[in-house]
Amino acid sequence: MESLREDPELAAEMVGLMGRELRIARKKTEELERELTAERKRVSTLEASYTTEKERAEAAEYTRDIFKLNMEKFGKQSKRLLRELEHNKKEIKKEREEFVLGSSSDGGLDRKILTKSS
């Protein structure tokens, strides 16, 4: 420090260098702050996109689960209806045979007529 007091030119040069270094540091700080602000906006945008896509995925999963449950329900109902249909067919066939046999023994309807109409 003694040499700076003795040499005013050196002191002025040092002050100038420090001033330039300060301007460079401030400029770099401002640049980094702008980059940080841009990155924060980017992160915010990404978070919003992530949230939107996550909600869409959850909605799709929920819809898929409901659809799956409905398909299982309809499958069970279809199987039940098919069993009922088969049972009803057997019952109709049985009743038809009983009717034909009963009618034939009475000398009434001919079996061929009943089977052709069905």
Q: Would you give an account of this structure?
A:
The chain is mostly helical and 118 residues long. The chain has one domain. The protein is 93% helix and 0% strand. The chain is built from three helices and no strands. It has helices at residues 2-6, 8-105, 111-117. The longest helix has 98 residues, at 8-105. The mean pLDDT is 87.
Task: Identify the notable features of this structure and list them briefly.
mainly alpha, coiled coil, 3 helices, 118 residues
Topology (elements, then pairings):
Elements: H1 2-6, H2 8-105, H3 111-117
Helicity level: over 70%
Largest sheet: none
User: How many helix segments?
Assistant: 3
Number of strands: 0
Low-confidence stretches: none
Total number of domains: 1
Give a quick summary of the entry.
This protein has helices spanning 2-6, 8-105, 111-117.
